[in-house]
Design goal:
200 residues; alpha+beta; Enolase-like, domain 1; three-stranded antiparallel beta sheet; two-stranded antiparallel ribbon; 5 strands
Length: 200
């Protein structure tokens, strides 16, 4: 890489490191950047000089692998690869490819220097923690099976401590949970399950 490209990349990385403290997410006491922050700062500082090209390496009914290549002014400067298992989370059941693409971008940007001391993004760490603790996925699966207002209220009571714990320790997992919860709740409301139109 010539000095001009090298200087551009170094300057962009410096901006990332300065802004990192303002945008990081704390998970179990450590600071992590999100993929969105890495992309935002890379685009803001490098603009169209940075080209991220992703390729689906593998996809089937069980898993997806995406590789991302980074180019600065047409010169290859880094690679990132990610794998997602379709049944590993509630979100991956419908969006494994999208999650995998985002993860590959985050890995690629981390590998070219958009990173603090943790290469893993906040999303990756959050997903790993969620996968280790299947409680949220189980809770969402149980919510999807709620049949009347009483069982909905019982579900909330049963899981309230879990939700508080996740909200405090893993804000990204909680945000993802909230998105899925809202979708399921809307479906239950539409069917009349939790808004009083269906009897207990």
């Amino acid at each position: 890489m010539d000095n001009n490209k090298n200087d551009k990349l170094k300057a962009a990385i410096e901006v990332f490191k300065k802004e990192f403290g303002n945008t990081s997410i704390k998970i179990h006491g450590k600071d992590y950047s999100t993929v969105a922050d890495r992309i935002s700062i890379a685009r803001k500082t490098l603009g169209s000089s940075l080209d991220l090209k992703d390729t689906i390496i593998h996809h089937d009914k069980d898993r997806v692998i995406v590789q991302c290549e980074a180019y600065l002014d047409g010169v290859h400067i880094g690679t990132g690869i990610a794998e997602e298992t379709r049944l590993s989370s509630f979100i991956n059941k419908t969006s494994a490819l999208e999650n995998c693409q985002s993860s590959s971008w985050g890995r690629c940007l981390a590998n070219i220097g958009f990173v603090n001391s943790n290469i893993a993004s906040a999303e990756e760490v959050s997903a790993a923690i969620s996968n280790q603790n299947k409680s949220l996925t189980t809770a969402l699966t149980e919510l999807d099976k709620v049949s009347h207002l009483g069982s909905y209220k019982a579900w909330i009571s049963k899981n309230s401590d879990l939700f508080k714990r996740i909200k405090e320790n893993d804000p990204l997992a909680y945000k993802n949970f909230q998105e899925q919860f809202s979708k399921i709740r809307l479906t239950l409301e539409t069917k009349g399950v939790i808004n009083g139109r269906k009897s207990n």
